[in-house]
């Protein structure tokens, strides 16, 4: 067995990460679409938040967090700026944020990914870890949306279909 | 606005990916522990698989998939090798797989991450995408486990606590 040193091996490029993330966002968009209007805002399991609230959380993180990283702004996290009343409003905002995410993500340098940033004035981690957290948090909540859909008797979209 | 080219920017090292994954695996282990013995094997929502079955899936992917990648083996995916009857058996196997994952992951070269491999003779993607899929799939199913726990009236572990 040959074990090579791992410390300097690169795993993937920033373009590949952005592509993965936007693929996840496409799938999450399909999950939002899969909910009937009423259940999107009202249905949940075990006293958790309905999927509309989870979608608002995801919308309030991705774009605003990247903007904060690029502009060095440590303004606190807030969901107050967006109070959608319809599925259409959520989907429209979702698509707008796709462009916001591309815009800011592409301005982050290779060095910056390894630098620590106090995201939202609260989460002090290397930038790459903050970005992985955004993606993981989305996959986590979307998995919960899959359970809501199954509990409603609705077949969720295939997990592996991203584009 | 300055937009720099993204194609050649590196996002993170392989050591950082392995560390993130093992952090996720620690959290998933805590979720397994949080279930009462009976509910781990029997409880679910919306006709889905109980969390013991989801844990067996995760155990059947990580280590065996990395072994396949390193050894160039395209044997089909199977959950047949592991049929646990207790939580303790699952946790013991989980910990064994921690070492298996470290062992094989560290043998994958930087170039190999970008090469295509027909995982389990079925999933033909670049190796880095296959590995991201293992992690995403774990976060996805663990999110479902969080709903099961909430439906059982059990507080899940904090999502951000990994080590």
How would you describe this protein?
The structure is a homodimer of 163-residue chains. Chain A has 163 residues and is mainly alpha-helical. Chain A has a single domain, classed as dinb family like domain (Four Helix Bundle (Hemerythrin (Met), subunit A), Up-down Bundle), CATH 1.20.120. Chain A is built from 6 helices and 3 strands; from the N terminus they run E-H-H-H-H-H-E-E-H. Chain A has helices at 14-34, 37-42, 51-71, 87-105, 110-113, 127-151, and strands spanning 10-13, 116-119, 123-126. The first copy, chain A, has a two-stranded antiparallel ribbon. In chain A, a hairpin with a 3-residue loop joins strand 2 and strand 3 (123-126). In chain A, helix 1 runs antiparallel to helix 4 and helix 3 (51-71) runs antiparallel to helix 6 (127-151). The longest helix of chain A is centred in the last third of the chain and has 25 residues, at 127-151. Chain A is globular. The N and C termini of chain A lie far apart (39 Å). The model of chain A has no long low-confidence stretch (mean pLDDT 94). At the A-B interface, strand 1, helix 1 and helix 6 of A face strand 1, helix 1 and helix 6 of B.
Count of discrete alpha- or pi-helical segments spanning 4 or more residues of chain A = 6
Total DSSP E strands of chain A: 3
Sheet/helix structural class of chain A: mainly alpha
Strand content of chain A: 5-15%
Largest sheet of chain A: 2 strands, antiparallel
Q: What is the architecture of chain A at the second tier of CATH? A: Up-down Bundle
Question: Can you list the strand order of the major beta sheet of chain A?
Answer: 2-3
CA-atom Rg of chain A in angstroms: 17 Å
Shape of chain A: globular
* Oligomer type: homodimer
Helix content of chain A: 55-70%
Mean pLDDT of chain A: 94
Largest interface: A-B, 51 and 51 residues
Keywords (chains A, B): Metal-binding
Protein name (chains A, B): Damage-inducible protein DinB
Family (chains A, B): Belongs to the DinB family.
InterPro entries (chains A, B): DinB (IPR007837), DinB/YfiT-like (IPR034660)
């Amino acid at each position: 067995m040959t074990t090579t040193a791992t410390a300097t091996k690169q795993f993937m490029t920033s373009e590949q990460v952005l592509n993965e993330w936007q693929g996840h966002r496409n799938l999450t968009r399909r999950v939002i679409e899969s909910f009937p209007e009423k259940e999107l805002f009202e249905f949940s399991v075990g006293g958790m938040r309905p999927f509309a609230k989870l979608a608002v959380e995801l919308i309030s993180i991705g774009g605003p967090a990247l903007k904060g990283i690029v502009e060095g702004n440590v303004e606190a996290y807030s969901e107050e700026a967006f109070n959608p009343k319809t599925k259409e409003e959520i989907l429209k905002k979702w698509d707008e944020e796709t462009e916001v995410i591309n815009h800011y993500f592409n301005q982050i340098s290779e060095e910056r990914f390894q630098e620590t940033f106090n995201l939202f004035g609260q989460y002090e981690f290397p930038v790459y870890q903050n970005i992985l957290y955004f993606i993981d948090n989305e996959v986590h909540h979307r998995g919960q949306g899959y359970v809501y859909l199954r509990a409603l008797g609705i077949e969720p979209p295939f997990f592996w279909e991203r584009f």
